[in-house]
C-alpha cells in the first residue's frame, strides 16, 4: 500500500511517518507499506499544480493530511493565509486524491465547535467555529469527499514541535506557581489516542498528575478533566 503524508515536519506528521516506517520495517500487520512524505519546502499544499503533480505522480492508495497552518492567533491576523493553506490546500489534496482514487484522512480540530456544549462533543454535533483557524479547518473538512476520513483531535502533545507539555516543563521550577487560563475542558487520555508510539506523560518521564496544573472530575464520569489549555493559546493545542 502506498501512503502519501503531508505536514511531515509537524507534531502529528512526524509521528505518523515514524509509525508507518516502524510498521513497514517490521511488517507488523497488513500489506507492505510504501511511504512518501515530502516536507513543505518540497511541496507547498497551497500550490495546486504542485499538489496535483506530486500526488498524481505517486498515485498513492491513501493520503494522510495533517499539514495545516496551526498558529491560532496568527490566523486571526492573516485570514488569507489561513484559508489558503487550510481550505484551499485541502481542496487541492482532495482533488489530487480523487484523480488517483486515493482515500484521504484529514486531521481536524475541536476548534470547529464553539465550546458551549455542557457535555463532550459527538461527531454529529453542529460545528460553530469562533475563530479564523476553526473556520479554516472546517472549510478544509468540507473540501473532502463523502467517505473520506476526518479526525477531529485536540491537545496534541507530540515529541517534536511546540506544545503545552513542553511549555510547562520549560516553565516549571521549584517553588514557582504556574498560571493558566482555564476556559477549556478536555479529557486527558490514559494512553495515546492517535498513535501507539506517542509518548504519554509517563513514558516522557513525567508523573501523570503534573500534566494538568488544575484538574477537576467531570460530573458523571470517571475521567479527569484538565484545564490547562486555553482557546487563546498561540497554537492549536
Ligand atoms: N496541535 C494540536 O493540538 C492540534 C489539535 C487539534 C487538531 N490539530 C490538527 O492536527 C494537524 C497536525 O497538527 P500539528 O500539531 O502536527 O501541527 P504542526 O506541528 O503545526 O505541523 C503542521 C505541519 O504542516 C506543515 N505545513 C504548514 N503549511 C504548509 C503548506 N502550505 N504546505 C505544506 N505543509 C505545510 C508544516 O510545515 P513547516 O513546519 O515546514 O511549516 C508542518 O509540517 C493539523 O491539521 C491541526 O489542525 C492539531
Domain count: the total is 1
- State mean pLDDT (0 to 100 scale): 81
Overall morphology: globular
Q: What is the CATH T-level topology?
A: Rossmann fold
- SSE pattern, N- to C-terminal: EHEHEHHEHEHEEE
Which CATH architecture would you pick?
Answer: 3-Layer(aba) Sandwich
Question: What's the layout of helices and strands?
Answer:
Elements: E1 2-5, H1 11-26, E2 34-36, H2 48-58, E3 62-65, H3 72-77, H4 79-100, E4 103-109, H5 132-142, E5 149-153, H6 164-171, E6 186-187, E7 215-217, E8 224-226
Parallel strand pairs: 1-2, 1-3, 3-4, 4-5
Antiparallel strand pairs: 6-8, 7-8
NADP nicotinamide-adenine-dinucleotide phosphate is lined by residues 6-13, 40, 44-46, 66-70, 85, 89, 107, 109, 137, 153-156, 161, 236-237.
What is the structure about, briefly put?
This protein is α/β, with parallel strands linked by helices.
Structure, described:
This protein is 31% helix and 13% strand. By secondary structure, it is of the alpha/beta class. The chain has a 5-stranded parallel β-sheet, with helices on both faces. Strands 6-8-7 form a 3-stranded antiparallel β-sheet, with no helix packed on it. It has one domain: 3-Layer(aba) Sandwich (Rossmann fold). Helix 5 (132-142) links the parallel strand 4 (103-109) and strand 5 (149-153). The chain contains 6 helices and 8 strands, in the order βαβαβααβαβαβββ.
Amino acid at each position: 500500500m502506498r501512503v502519501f503524508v503531508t505536514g511531515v515536519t509537524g507534531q502529528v506528521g512526524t509521528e505518523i511517518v515514524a509509525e508507518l516506517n516502524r510498521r513497514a520495517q517490521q511488517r507488523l500487520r497488513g500489506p507492505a507499506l510504501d511511504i512518501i512524505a515530502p516536507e513543505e519546502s518540497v511541496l507547498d499544499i497551497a500550490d495546486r499544480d504542485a499538489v496535483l503533480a506530486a500526488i498524481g505522480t505517486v498515485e498513492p492508495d491513501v493520503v494522510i493530511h495533517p499539514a495545516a497552518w496551526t498558529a491560532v492567533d496568527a490566523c486571526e491576523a492573516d485570514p488569507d493565509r489561513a484559508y489558503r493553506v487550510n481550505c484551499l490546500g485541502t481542496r487541492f489534496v482532495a482533488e489530487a486524491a480523487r484523480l488517483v482514487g486515493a482515500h484521504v484522512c484529514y486531521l481536524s480540530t475541536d476548534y470547529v465547535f464553539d465550546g458551549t456544549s455542557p457535555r463532550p462533543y459527538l461527531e454529529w454535533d453542529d460545528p460553530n467555529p469562533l475563530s479564523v483557524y476553526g473556520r479554516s479547518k472546517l472549510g478544509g473538512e468540507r473540501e473532502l469527499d463523502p467517505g473520506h476520513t476526518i479526525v477531529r483531535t485536540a491537545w496534541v502533545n507530540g515529541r517534536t514541535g511546540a506544545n503545552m507539555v513542553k511549555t510547562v516543563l520549560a516553565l516549571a521550577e521549584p517553588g514557582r506557581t504556574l498560571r493558566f487560563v482555564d476556559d477549556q475542558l478536555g479529557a486527558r487520555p490514559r494512553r495515546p489516542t492517535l498513535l501507539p508510539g506517542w509518548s504519554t506523560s509517563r513514558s516522557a518521564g513525567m508523573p501523570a498528575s503534573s500534566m494538568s496544573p488544575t484538574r477537576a472530575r467531570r460530573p458523571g464520569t470517571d475521567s479527569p478533566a484538565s484545564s490547562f489549555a486555553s482557546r487563546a493559546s498561540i497554537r492549536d493545542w
